[in-house]
Amino acid sequence: MTAVEITPEERARLAEALLGALDPLAVAVRSRATGLPEGRMWHGEPAEVALSVLSAWKLLDAEVRRLTAVAAATAGSYGASYEQLGAAWGITRQGARKKWPEAVGRPAARPGSLELFGGSAELVQDEAAGGWCWTAVGADGSTGEAAAGHPTREEAAAHAGAFLAGHA
Fold this sequence. Notes:
Layout: H1 8-34, H2 46-77, H3 82-89, H4 93-99, E1 112-116, E2 119-126, E3 131-137, E4 143-150, H5 153-166
Helix pairs in contact: 1-2, 3-4
């Protein structure tokens, strides 16, 4: 995908549309913050009015970020890769993975075993509890376990590995 550029005319139309969308939000934010009726939005100290507008832009920015993540996840659900997401956003594949870590589906992780530091651990997905658990026997004979609660197989493996390292 090639880089998308915006023309000056498109930028002007976009600014007009964004300001039109922002105005009711800025009025509502200022009214709630000051207790003034919405019709008196522009009455008050200029800095206070400008800060109300800034607060509304912050809310709009958060919503744009949320909708951007939804768009990335939608693209990922249709098979887009992190490389493609990055190209569309003008960042690297790694940047896209960091920005939208859940956007691209991964193959389902399978239960497995670890053999580290002379010990072993079994990793099991507990779908009923909504997470991964592990049981381990360290090289020193100590046993350990974690109930489901690790959101990913990798996190459960890291905790099991740390246990095995501590009981080498």
